[in-house]
Amino acid sequence: MSTISLSSLITLAQDTLAAAGANPVMAETTAKALVFADAHGIATHGVSRVPSYALHLSSGRADGGAEPEIVQEKASALLVDARTGLAFPACELAITAAIEKARQTGICIAGVTNSHHFGMAAYHLEPVAHAGLIGLAFSNSPSAITAWGGKRPLFGTNPIAAAFPREQAEPVVIDLSLSQVARGKVILAARDDKPIPDGWALDSEGRPTNDAKAALKGSMQAAGGVKGSMLALMVEVLCVALTGANFGYEADPLYDDTGNEPRLGQVFILIDPQALAGQQTYFNRLEDLIAAMLEDDGVRLPGARRHDLANTAREEGITVPDSLLAQMGYQ
Predict the structure, then answer these.
(1) For residue range 51-64, what is the model confidence (pLDDT) as tens digits?
(2) pTM of the predicted model as reported, rounded to 2 decimal places
(3) Contact of 56 with 22, CB cutoff 8 Å
(4) Could you give the CA distance from residue 5 to residue 18 in angstroms, rounded to a whole number?
(5) Using CB atoms within 10 A as the burial measure, which of 48, 129, 173, 265 is most buried?
């Protein structure tokens, strides 16, 4: 393991992606997003993704030359086509445009189609919260969860996130996938030949398994059982039926270079509190709730630990496996 500064890790990831074919904007936006995830303690969505992203670029599963474009637009809605490139430039375009629309109309829904894995969901909501807006983020992903009662994986682990700005503090940030654990943890366990705990996944026959590689050929356990499966269905409809993207079962797995262009979908919903009861009322009511929550000593606000980890990472850097650094050409 080696410790590397955030700026050096961004440069290393950016150079690796550029060498694989990403254009300068794609390489930069992707590298920043991945290092953000590492800094916030989400290693499964950090630079550990660089080798697979690079494989997708070099094999044609993602178009490194793609330039996203707004292809549909109304007063409070827009659709961005990622052109089968990596997701981050398209998501940045969608968020930037949606912030302006939400400020004008009170709300905006922004969709992204023909996209790719979009990393840590909450990352995309940082500028939304800093603009004083509430943000919701949804993405589908290659199939990993069965419809309730079925054996065939149809839905992705389908992350959802929310960011609620505060008047004089860091936003409350909620970020979760709809599987019992993020599938990225199983991918890392398979890479490192490590077992996975009970309750994470099923093999291809629908049997509980501790074998990470068997789990990748099977399905993930939905968070909360039937409730998680229903939420995954909701995200598929939002991210695909509204954008024209691929359903999870139409997108090949992302963990190697073989397969199709995933053409995933993302949806962001931005809300201006001023358009409803007013921003100050929103801030006051939110703080009342937070105060009530924190009266219990064991309560920790969602996102608080990640903010603390990010502050430490900015000062001390990030610890990265030497094998991963070697894959990115680190000397």
Answers:
(1) 999 999 999 999 99
(2) 0.93
(3) no
(4) 20
(5) 265
Cα–Cα distance for residue pair 285/216, rounded to 1 Å: 44
Q: Do both 78 and 212 map to the same domain?
A: no
Q: Mean pLDDT, to the nearest integer, of 65-93?
A: 98
**Parallel, antiparallel, or unpaired: how do β-strands 107-115 and 77-81 relate?**
parallel
- Domain membership of residue 7 (yes or no) is yes
pLDDT for 20 beyond 70 = yes
Check residue 122 and report its DSSP letter.
G
DSSP 3: E
- Cα–Cα distance for residue pair 12/32, rounded to 1 Å: 11
- In 242-330, which ranges are E strands? 264-271, 318-320
Condensed to tens digits (0 to 9), the pLDDT of residues 271-297 reads 999 999 999 999 999 999 999 999 999
132 and 265 part of one domain: yes
On whether both 31 and 101 belong to a single domain, the answer is yes
Task: Tell me, yes or no, whether 65 and 191 share the same domain.
Answer: no
Range of the domain at 87: 2-179+222-275
Mean per-residue pLDDT of the chain: 94
In a domain, 152, yes or no: yes
Residues 22 and 159 in one domain: yes
User: Are the C-beta atoms of residues 159 and 142 closer than 8 Å to each other?
Assistant: no
Check residue 86 and give left, alpha or beta (phi > 0: left; psi -120 to 50: alpha): beta
For 191-204, the pLDDT digits (tens) are 888 999 988 888 88
